[in-house]
Specification:
single chain, about 250 residues, alpha/beta, Glutaredoxin, Glutathione S-transferase Yfyf (Class Pi), Chain A, domain 2, 9 helices, 5 strands, globular, Glutathione_S-Trfase_N, Glutathione-S-Trfase_C_sf, transferase activity, Glutathione S-transferase
Length: about 250
Amino acid sequence: MTRQSKPTITAFESSPDKGAGLARDTRVRWAFEEVDQPYDVRLVSFKAMKEPAHLALHPFGQIPTYEEGDLALFETGAIILHLAQHHAGLLPDEANARARAITWMFAALNTVEPPILERENTRLLPSEEPWRAQRMPILDDRIRSRLGQLSASLGDAEWLDGSFSAGDLMMVSVLLRLRNSSDMLDEYPNLSAYIVRGEARQAYKRAFAAQLAVFTGKSSTGSPCTGSALRQGSGLSPGASTRTNEHGRK
Ligand code: GTB
């Protein structure tokens, strides 16, 4: 079912990754593109994210949020699941296959992403922190363990469970975060190829271009997003370092 009203999401007004596609609005944009649902984007500054108007949408003062009529959602998992449940294209029709695809969404968010984020946050600590150098190899091992298991599960398949699903969208998004900061994925050729397959999807390309356009100031083409972005005030200079943690802080 395709819904009538056009949803609005929020994204960084000035993403610290300078349009590398690592902020979590990218995965939501990707889901919109996969189901061919036009959307609007409201850009928010770091300052505005912590103010009452945004906190009313997102209790933790983060992006992305999702608004559609009188429904407001936060958490990318919930937003993408909502989209997948209301549009064809991201979840199989058959009940068990659908449940398995949702399982992969949770696996990406709850099992694969946490050690990647922990490594990222540790990596960005000042190098003079005495335990930083000791901790990094421990976190690398933890990630390798997950990647090895994921690689074995994927095997020679194109996607995690039959056709491309919201589970693959989420898993590829999570792995892209790792690829940005480590060569570790090169050790798992089937996972590297899996990511490349995700990036090769036209829907991903449109989503990536749309988020990059916010940084470059150029409108992207081919996207169902009308690009009617409403700015809520500036919080970060465009030249800010990409060495930022989850919260966009250096
Ligand atoms: N669990 C939530 C979800 O999945 O929606 C997490 C949301 C989240 O972490 N949002 C981040 C945020 O709003 C942006 S995506 N941070 C601001 C804050 O907490 O104050 C995480 C992110 C941030 C920066 C980069 N980067 O610069 O490369 C990449 C990803």
